[in-house]
Structures are given as C-alpha cells and as structure tokens.
Specification:
- The complex is a heterodimer.
- The longest helix of chain A has 30 residues.
- Chain A contains seven helices and three strands, in the order H-H-H-H-H-H-E-E-E-H.
- By secondary structure, chain A is an all-alpha fold.
- A two-stranded antiparallel sheet of chain A has the order 1-2.
- Chain B has five domains: 31 residues; 55 residues, Phosphorylase Kinase, domain 1 (2-Layer Sandwich); 225 residues, Rossmann fold (3-Layer(aba) Sandwich), CATH 3.40.50; 183 residues, Dimethylsulfoxide Reductase, domain 2 (3-Layer(aba) Sandwich), CATH 3.40.228.10; 92 residues, Barwin-like endoglucanases (Beta Barrel), CATH 2.40.40.20.
- In chain B, helix 4 packs across helix 24 and helix 13 packs across helix 14.
- A seven-stranded mixed sheet of chain B has the order 6-5-18-17-16-7-8, sandwiched between helices. A six-stranded mixed barrel of chain B has the order 23-27-24-26-25-28.
- Helix content of chain B is 32%, strand content 18%.
- By secondary structure, chain B is α/β, with parallel strands linked by helices.
- The chains are: A mainly alpha, B alpha/beta.
- Chains A and B meet through helix 5 and strand 3 of A and helix 1, strand 1, strand 4, helix 8 and helix 9 of B.
- Strand 3 of chain A pairs parallel with strand 1 of chain B, so a sheet runs across the interface.
C-alpha cells in the first residue's frame, strides 16, 4: 500500500527553508569578513596606491635586497658566492682598509661615473662572472677610478719592503652573547648593509638579522683600548 | 736570517691561502701585504698633508711599531673631508722601496762609492768653496722644487741669497706654475689665488681650461661632482685640446686648437662687452685697463731677455682691441664654433650664476702663459665674478708646496721671502732678519730654470745642488741639458731618496729623509699651510734636506746664520721665516696652531683664516667693506689687452702632429715615488702614446703596436694607445712623462713664456712612423 502523503504541502516549504538557512549561514560567515575587510584597509597601502609608491616594510636597504631576491631568475638560482673568502677580499688590498683594486676585466677605461655603479650600487647576480655583485658602501662617491684601479701586470718596477698589520679579528664581544664591536674604521664604510647583508657578501661577516636596519644601535666602533678614568686630560 | 717555527707556520699558512685563492681566481696575486705580528688595533693615527699634489689633502697616517702601515683621509681637513685618491691611500708605501738611498755616495773614478754622510757633506762644502774661489759666487747654484718642505726652501734661500750672495736659486715649480705667479702679479700685484676650495661647493658653473682634473686633482674633481649631484642646475664645461676622463664627466666638452685659448678668452670678452653684460659698477670702481708689449718671442735662444712695458689705456681702447675677436673670427683660429663661444660668454655673464674657472698646466705651460692667465682674469673682472663664494678664477698647483715653498718663500732667482731682490726695501728686510750684510744680497736676478741649465751646459755654472726633483726627466729639450750636466768640470750634488736619471748624473748623492720621516710644512693651492710631524724613523744615514743645507752652510763658515739645534730647528726656522710675512696681507699661523690643526689658511689675522682675499667682507687687509685690490698701487685689478699669438712650433708638412705631454692619475710627476708603489705600477706599468683612431688607421697602427715619434730634437719608440683613457683629436698625440724608460722630454721644445719663463710642454711638432 502506498504510504499516504500526509503533508503534501510541506515539501516545497522544506526546500525554501534549507535555501534560506544556506543564505543565512553564508551571511553569518561572510558578513564579519566583509565588515572586517571594510575596516581593515591599510592607510599606508592606500596612500602608496594614491602616490604610486612601492610599499616597504623594511629598514634601510633591506627592502631593495628583498626586491632583488623577489625578481629571482634561473641564473640566480644557480649562482653561488661562497667561493669568495675574507682572505680573498683582503688580497685585493694593501692594508686593512685600503681601497681594493678591481679584480675583473670589465672595466671601461674611460668610465667616470655610472659604469661601475650600474652594478656595484644595486647588486645582483652577474652571469658573466657567475657571482653576485658586492655592493659599494659609498655610492655617493661617483668617480670610482679615483681610488680603484685595474692592474695589468704582476711585475714590479722595484721591489718594496711593504708590510702592514694583521687583519682585524672578528667577534670580540665584550660579554658572552653581547653584540660584537665594529672591527674596522667606519670612514667610507658607514653603510653596514652593503658588506654585511646579501648574497654578494662573504659568509663569515654576513649578519643573520638584516631586518634590524639600525646596526649601530648595538654594534659600536672600538675607538680606544683605554678604560675610562676621571680627569684624564 | 733565522726562521722561527711561528714564522714558518705563518708563511706556510699564507702560501697555502695564496695557492687556494690563485686556483679559485686565476690571474690574481694574493696578499697585497705581508702582515706583521702587530694586530690591527695597534695603529696610532697622526695627521699630515699628503706627499703628492698641490691639492693638499689631509691624511691620517697609521703607525704601528716604527712603521707606517695604513692611511685614512683626515675628516678634520676641509680640503678633502676624509676622502683621498689612490696615490694618497698608498702614499706610505713610497717609504719602503727596496732601493732607498740610506747612505751617501761619492763618484770616484767614475763609480759611485758608498761614503759616510759627514764625509760626503765635507766634499760638497769644499767643492762649493773651490768653485766660488775659482769662478765666482755665481758659478754655484741650487735647484729645488715645490716638493721642498717650507724649511728646506727657506734655508736654501738664506744660504745662497743671504750668505753666499748669489741669486742662483731656482725650483722646478718654474716649470709648473710660474705663469700662474706672473698672471697674479700682473693682474693683482700679489701672488696666489683670491678664492679657496669652498668655491667648489658654491659655484653654479665650472669652466675648466685645458685641465684634466679627473686625473690631476681627483679629490677636487669629486668635490665638484658632489656639488653637481646635490643640485640640479650645476654645470661643468670642459674646454680642452684632447678628450679626457674629465671631458666624459663634463656636461659639455669643447675641443679647441692648441694655443687658441687666447682667442677664445678674448672672444668671450668681446661678447660680454658687446652685449652690455659688463658689470659696470664693479669695473668703474675696481678695474683699470692696461696694455703691454706684443710679439714677445719664445726664448728658444740662449741669453734671451724680455722686459715688459706696461701702458695704461681706457675702456674704449680695450673695446676697440676686442673687435679683432668676434666669435666668428675666433672660430677660425680655435675651431670652436661661434655658437659655443657665445654660450660660454653667456654663462660667464649670467648674473644669477656663480662661475669658477679652473686651470693647471694647460694654461701655465704655455708660451703665452702669463697672457692667458690675464685673459681669464679679464673675463672674471668684466663680470665682477671674483672674490665671492663660488666666483673664482683659480690656478691649481701640481706639487705639495709649490705655493708654500716656491711662491711664498720665494725660491726663484728674482724673489726673496718678502718681495724681490731688485727692491732695496725688500733686501734690507731680508738682510736684517737673516743677520747678513745688506751688500750680500745681489740686486740683480741671475738665471731662471731653463737658462740655469743652459748656463750649466755653457759652463757659466759649475756647481749645481739638486734637491727633491728630477730634472733629467722633466727638462724640455732634455738631451742638451743632460749632456751639459755630464760635462767635465761640472759638479752635481743630488739629494734624493731613490735612484733616478738625475742621481745617475750626480757626483755626490745625499740620502734624504722623506715626508713623515722628518718634520716640515707644505703650503697648498688655496693658501693653506699644513704641518707634519716626524712619524717614523729615518732609514740609515738619511738626512732631512734642511739639515743637509745647514750642515754644508756651517762647513762654509755660516754658523752664526744657522745656529739651530737638531731637536727644534724646524720650529726655529718657522718662527724666523714668518717675520717676513708679519702683515695683514700675509700673516701666517703660529707653529703651535699649525701643529694642532689640519692646515690653516693665510692671511691668518686675529685668529681668523681668510677665505676670500681682496673682498672687505672676508679679508681684513682691505681698506673698505667692498672689493679692494690692494696689491696694485691704484687699488684696482688690471685688465690686460693681450692678443692671440701662435705657438713657438706648430705642426707643418714635415712634422704634422702636435705633441702634448702630461700625467696620469696613478703616477705623480716622474714616477720616482709612485712607480715604487706596487699597486700603482701594476696598474700603469709604462708610458704610451695616445693616437686618434683615424690617424692610427692611416698609419696602419693598432693598439699596442710600436710607434716612432720624432721631433727636431729627438725621437722615441713606444706603444700606441688607441681609444684608451684619453683620446687626442686628429693631428695630435699625447704622451705621459712619468716613465724614465721613455724620456719624452728629449722631444719637447725649450720655448717658454717670456714673462714667466715657464716652458710649454703641451705644444711642439712631431712626426709618427710605424716602428
């Protein structure tokens, strides 16, 4: 026997109710999101959009470095800079802190201003050398050839008895775990990020916390070995 | 030599590191230096002026143990504010070349024999005495340089002019900035620039006249670039005869035919006058007009004499004279388009632009060097752009103390520390301070540099003492003067630090203490006096040049005039010397102040330096609050009517090329110091001849191939450089003169400016052949 349709009117009502429930549920979930979204517009972003300026959450040059990583190409992925060592960097100098000579061929002999800086101001991977470009800590000085030259021979005119001091020691924190002092003179090297952050730098002096842009908040140059004493004039 | 275990391990470690690096980076030598046991933080820093050019950068030299081991720019020195050039950064390596003279040498039977320095000084004194007895006091001479520390030059002048009584005192600065001196004297009546390096920070337009600042004065060049970078409107205009690094950095580079700068400068004046751009008020109150002799010759013959005769004229006569120099007529002489000349004039005349003109050897090593100096001053005077911040006609010097020693102490034949030998008052002053009879000082000048070497060749001079300079590389028409120096009956004493072609012709070599191995003073281009203390010990028997002179003077009986003790003689000399300049026009800082500060500019009056002279706002010597050109009796600056006259020797059918000579950034002058700096020699190991690519093509010469260059005086074979650092125009070649293996001055002509007696190293005629 066929089961009697007890409530034939109920069926469509039931469907409507389900649909309503679905809408209500979507509403309950979506509304706060919409409301939240509406109230969470970042003013910085909005202003940046108006001014067409890039958004940056980084200190100092770290943003620029982020962009460099961000534009990663396959060449970047294969590039390595680990072959460079501190010893190699010092071998380009005559004493700790002297201007290094130019160790590669691509030197435009006539170049005065932009030729060197086109790579050394921005950094990045250079396919020709299979290396990341080291950054200059002083891009404000634009006449690079004033101090940096390419050598064309290894012969000397006359021998020289030149010697200098040892290279500065790394680390040297005053207390266990305290930030180490700056081991070199700051003149011409005020921009820490240039040599201590990024793929163009050598490993032992690369810092692991580049997002902290204000380096000299914690690292200070050691100007004297002497300790404080009163009336020392 | 004993090798300790530690040394051995260190050496092995270095070697293995070097090998590792060499495998990773083929072609790169490891270890620019050998580290000593001294740690990096053992360095003590002391200030000194740089040893090289006339910029006068402040350096901090780091000394560890007894050795100079590092250099920093001195941030307290306003000249360079902490930045140096590659020569400055490596300057201390000049102290440690293996072949330093550490003992005296005396020629015996044609061979140089090591001799105790006291004996060598005895020989020098007895040879001088003998020459004076036999041939008179004017048979002995001294030839120094702008590398002389101030006490060296002062002692030489006192000894020769005051004690012996000969005016045979010259310095190689005669070859370097004599035209700048006569330019200043004829226009302003007093020597040295009115402006200072602060003009570089204040100017809106820089016009460089035949001046490759990027290589010759890189630190000032960078300061100029920094000014341009910090503003949007600053312009650098490069007027040049050859395209250089400076040309490439300039906003506009204008090539002109050698010698035609005279026509260009006059045409700029023509434009200023004819467009009524003259600063009428300034000209009416502060300028007077004059003309001198024309067709004045070139001095290529022995015993050449020239006496200027000045005549006062009026503005209308000056205006009439300028009608020969319309931009169109000047274009025919110079090859510079009339449009460009008008553009230059408009820049100079623009009342809203501050204009600084720079020049060095292009204008000074010029057979009309005094004239072209006058003409550039004319432009600044007609527009009133002078002696205010940013408005500055400025001759830069090439040597560390060309100003301090040669120009201020006056180590030139006609000069005294104050004034000239011809002036009785000046002689009286010198005799009094020097404690010598007034009759000792000869009122007649003798020989200027070129004529002094001619006199040595002729035999009029038998004895020459050469200190801190290398004339056997730098004299023009060199062959004649080298052969002259080697003649029988000539006695040459050379005070040197390294063997050079000049020490090769010496009969006695005295080993000199160098720069920071002794105490001294330099004076730079902007009237800044800088003191250096002795920072490291002297090597072997090396002796300070001043002390060498004092020792010989005492041996000749002048103990009374040279009574000083070895511990304090530099301070004593400073105190005596500054008596000559004790007036508001030239007062100098005290010894104490100079030891404390990184340079002090004179006039230093009431504890204040003078940045701009001749302007009452800045200069305490002025009688008014406005401009006062107190060097001239009429208290006005003199505008000179100076025409264009051709060079002494121009290219012709037989010798169709101009020969231009000069320097490169890495080497300083004859390279006797910088070539011993390993890194600088490795960068530029030898000289070369720059040839225009078109000329090279027609000669069939490629980069690096050998070329024979010949002039009427000599020839030389060297490598060609095509499209290298500089590029001469067609019809010109350029050769750097630093390399003693390629003595380009055997080809140059000993023609000079008749007024300044400074030779022209930039213009003579040569031919080229493939070699």
């Amino acid at each position: 026997m066929e089961k009697p349709d007890l409530n034939p009117e109920e069926k469509p009502d039931y469907k409507i109710g389900k649909l309503f429930l679905l809408f209500a549920m979507i509403g309950v979930i979506a509304l706060p999101i919409i409301i939240f979204k509406a109230f969470s517009i970042s003013t910085g972003e909005a202003l940046a959009k108006i001014n067409k300026a890039p958004v940056s959450d980084f200190d100092h040059l770290a943003g620029q470095l982020f962009d460099t990583y961000n534009k990663t190409t396959p060449a970047y992925m294969e590039g390595n800079s680990t072959a460079r060592t501190l010893n190699y960097y010092y071998s380009l100098r005559q004493y700790p802190g002297s201007p290094p000579f130019v160790p590669h061929d691509q030197v435009v002999e006539k170049g005065v201003e932009q030729t060197c800086l086109s790579c050394h101001e921005r950094g990045g991977f250079v396919q020709a050398f299979n290396r990341f470009t080291p950054l200059t800590p002083h891009p404000q000085h634009t006449y690079c050839g004033q101090c940096h030259m390419k050598t064309v021979t290894e012969d000397l005119f006359r021998e020289n008895d030149w010697v200098s001091v040892q290279v500065p020691k790394l680390g040297r924190s005053a207390l266990a775990g305290s930030p180490p002092p700056i081991a070199h003179a700051l003149q011409m090297r005020e921009n820490c990020i240039a040599c201590h952050v990024g793929p163009g730098t050598v490993v032992p002096i690369r810092v692991e916390h580049p997002m902290r842009g204000n380096c000299r908040q914690c690292h200070v140059p050691e100007e004297t070995k002497a300790l404080f004493s009163r009336n020392d004039r | 030599m004993t090798l300790t275990r530690r040394d051995f391990i260190r050496a092995m470690a270095l070697k293995s590191a070097a090998v590792a690096a060499a495998t990773l980076f083929p072609g790169i030598s490891f270890a620019g230096w050998t580290p000593t046991d001294l740690p990096a933080d053992s360095i003590l820093w002391s200030k000194t002026p740089c040893r090289f050019c006339g910029t006068g950068c402040g350096l901090l030299v780091g000394v560890s143990g007894q050795r100079a081991v590092a250099v920093k720019g001195d941030p307290n020195c306003s000249v360079n504010k902490g930045l140096c050039c590659v020569k400055g950064y490596h300057s201390i390596q000049i102290l440690y070349g293996n072949d330093r003279f550490t003992t005296a040498y005396v020629r015996k039977n044609g061979k140089m024999v090591p001799t105790p320095i006291e004996d060598a000084l005895d020989i020098v004194a007895s040879q001088m005495k003998a020459s004076i007895e036999k041939n008179g006091k004017d048979s002995v001479s001294i030839y120094g340089s702008g590398q002389w520390s101030i006490p060296d030059g002062y002692t030489a002048s006192k000894f020769f002019k005051g004690c012996i009584g000969t005016n045979n005192v010259e310095a190689n600065a005669r070859l370097c900035m004599a035209s700048a001196v006569t330019g200043c004297l004829t226009t302003f009546g007093l020597d040295e620039p009115m402006g200072c390096y602060e003009d570089i920070d204040n100017a809106d337009v820089f016009i460089t006249w035949g001046n490759n600042m990027a290589e010759m004065h890189p630190v000032l060049f960078s300061r100029m670039l920094a000014n341009r970078k910090s503003k949007t409107h600053v312009q650098i205009i490069d007027l040049t005869t050859r395209s250089t690094r400076s040309s490439l950095a300039a906003d506009k580079s204008i090539l002109f035919t050698p010698q035609s700068d005279l026509a260009i400068a006059n045409a700029i004046c023509y434009e200023i006058v004819n467009n009524n751009w003259v600063n009428q008020e300034f000209v009416a109150n502060h300028v007077s007009f004059h003309k001198g002799k024309t067709n004045i010759g070139y001095g290529t013959e022995d015993h050449f004499q020239f006496t200027e005769k000045a005549e006062t004229i009026d503005f209308d006569e000056f205006k009439a004279f300028l009608s020969d120099y319309t931009p169109e007529l000047a274009e025919k002489i110079s090859g510079v388009s009339a449009e460009d000349i008008k553009y230059l004039a408009a820049l100079y005349a623009d009342p809203d632009k501050r204009v600084t003109s720079f020049w060095t050897m292009g204008m000074n090593q010029h057979t009309r060097g005094t004239w072209i100096n006058n003409l550039v001053y004319n432009i600044h005077l007609l527009t009133g752009k002078i002696s205010t911040p940013g408005n500055s006609p400025f001759s830069l010097t090439g040597q560390p103390s060309a100003c301090g020693t040669v120009r201020e102490v006056g180590t030139l034949t006609h000069k005294l520390p104050h004034g000239v030998v011809m002036n009785e008052g000046d002689r009286k002053m010198a005799a009094k301070i020097w404690d010598v009879p007034e009759t000792n000082i000869d009122p007649k000048p003798t020989f200027h540099t070129v004529e002094m070497f001619r006199a040595l060749d002729r035999g009029d001079i038998n004895f020459m003492w050469i200190q801190v300079t290398n004339p056997m590389v730098t004299m023009p028409n060199l062959k004649r003067y080298r052969e002259g120096a080697q003649k029988e009956d000539r006695f040459i004493v050379v005070s040197e630090i390294y063997p050079t072609p000049t020490s090769d012709v010496a009969d006695v070599i005295l080993p000199s203490a160098l720069w920071v191995e002794r105490e001294g003073f330099f004076g730079n281009s902007e009237r800044r006096t800088q003191h250096n203390a002795q920072l490291v010990p002297k090597p072997g028997e090396a002796m300070c040049n001043t002390w060498q002179l004092i020792q010989v003077a005492r041996r000749m009986g002048f103990e009374k005039q040279f009574p000083w003790k070895e511990e304090t003689y530099i301070e004593d000399i400073w105190n005596e010397y500054t008596k000559f300049h004790d007036n508001p026009k030239h007062r100098m800082a005290s010894y104490k102040v100079l030891t404390e500060r990184s340079g002090v500019q004179w006039p230093f009056v009431d504890g204040k330096e003078t940045r701009w002279r001749y302007n009452g706002k800045y200069d305490p010597a002025c009688q008014a609050d406005t401009w006062d050109f107190y060097g001239k009796p009429d208290h006005k600056a003199w505008v000179w009517l100076r025409p264009y006259e051709p060079a002494a020797e121009s290219p012709d059918r037989e010798y169709p090329f101009w020969l231009n000579t000069g320097r490169v950034l890495e080497h300083w002058h004859t390279g006797s110091m910088t070539r011993r700096i390993p890194i600088l020699h490795k960068a530029v190991p030898e000289s070369y001849v720059e040839i225009n690519p078109e000329d090279a093509r027609s000669l069939g010469v490629v980069n690096g191939s050998k070329v024979k260059i010949s002039s009427r005086r000599g020839s030389i074979v060297m490598k060609a450089s095509i499209n290298g650092r500089g590029n001469p125009p067609e019809g010109m070649v350029f050769v750097p003169f630093f390399d003693e293996s390629y003595l380009i001055n055997e080809l140059t002509l000993d023609a000079f400016c008749p007024i300044s007696k400074q030779p022209d190293y930039k213009k003579c005629a040569v031919k080229l052949e493939r070699a």
